[in-house]
Amino acid sequence: MRDLYITATDTTPEVLLSFDSSLFRIKGKSIPLDGESFYKDIIAWFDGYVENANERTVLDIHLENMNISSSKMILFILYRLKELKTQGKEVLVNWGHLADDKEMIEVAEDYEFMVDIPFKLNAFELALSI
Fold first, then answer.
1. Domain for residue 130, yes or no?
2. Separation CA 33–CA 102 (nearest Å)
3. Threshold 0.70, pTM exceeds
4. Quick one: how far is CA 14 from the chain centroid?
């Protein structure tokens, strides 16, 4: 399975999906005007991954913020991971959030409830740009 790498922009996150190294990461801002277009290839990658997944999958999602269309697309990705859990595979989501961002914490808790996959919440600080 081929790796998928997408460079971050001002409105879209960095995405690294690597089957061989078991690295699965979505990091940055996710506020594209058209979330469906941006996430289309990512969801297709996970569709393929579900067919021949590793025994253990850990997805790191560290978003500073996201819009409604991104939220919907992230949920679609999580539903793919739920399929893995149904297959008896181990799945974990590391959910990074700004330390004081109660809304992103609530989003993670809602996702965890909806997909029945364990989430580990991790607070982070924004690095200052000079």
1. no
2. 24
3. yes
4. 10
